[in-house]
């Protein structure tokens, strides 16, 4: 799809589901961000293709990339360049991974349930990998509920990827990793609808930011 029509389609999708003012704000950042990082991550996916293949998406949310201005803001506040291993749970087309690499993170991983989005993430991160050859980016086509958190992951991003059921399982996986390898953990949670789950696992909110409705997030630490 040509960029103009891709942006136009995405604009109407956001305007229909959220509001015109938010759509204008996001599309402006889409055009600026895609050009800045040289990647193609615009668009939404309701994951209907997964449902047709018999994959349970009951607890998953639709794919939408986090707005460039929001993710840059949170990566700056979380000092992403200092993290040892950054993990994006529900990485979609790989936008956050590419931005994190550009902002100084050197070891990154992403997990994505959708094979189509996973393949697009591979293409986008390959571009970033060429720009930053000393950066290590690993992608996994997997279900977050069953994904084992690596022993050195110390910063995790989630953009409201699933409901309370899956979130609880993911948090248990993180807890197991921390129990086996004690360390400080930072979680960047964009559109934090299930933040009570994080708090029930002992995480404290250390930062909150809201640009507009739906364009908000928080940083949690433990």
From TrEMBL:
InterPro entries: Methyltransf_12, SAM-dependent_MTases_sf
Keyword set includes Calcium: no
Domain Methyltransferase type: start-end pairs: 87-174
EC number of this enzyme: 2.1.1.-
EC main group: transferase
An example Gene Ontology biological process: methylation
Protein's name according to its UniProt entry: Class I SAM-dependent methyltransferase
Organism: Ferruginibacter yonginensis
């Amino acid at each position: 799809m040509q960029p103009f029509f891709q942006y136009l389609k995405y604009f109407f999708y956001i305007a229909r589901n959220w509001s015109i003012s938010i759509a204008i704000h996001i599309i402006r950042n889409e055009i600026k961000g895609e050009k800045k990082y040289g990647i193609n991550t615009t668009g939404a996916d309701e994951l209907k293709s997964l449902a047709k293949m018999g994959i349970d998406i009951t607890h998953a949310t639709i794919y939408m990339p986090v707005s460039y201005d929001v993710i840059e803001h949170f990566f700056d506040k979380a000092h992403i360049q200092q993290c040892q291993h950054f993990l994006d749970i529900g990485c979609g087309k790989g936008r956050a991974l590419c931005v994190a690499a550009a902002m100084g993170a050197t070891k990154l991983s992403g997990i994505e349930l959708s094979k189509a989005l996973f393949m697009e993430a591979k293409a986008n991160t390959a571009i970033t990998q060429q720009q930053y050859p000393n950066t290590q980016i690993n992608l996994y086509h997997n279900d977050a509920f069953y994904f084992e958190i690596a022993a050195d992951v110390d910063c995790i991003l989630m953009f409201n990827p699933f409901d309370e059921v899956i979130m609880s399982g993911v948090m248990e996986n993180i807890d197991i990793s921390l129990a086996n390898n004690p360390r400080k953990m930072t979680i960047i949670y964009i559109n934090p609808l299930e933040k009570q789950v994080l708090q029930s696992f002992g995480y404290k909110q250390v930062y909150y930011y809201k640009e507009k409705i739906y364009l908000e997030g928080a940083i949690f630490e433990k």
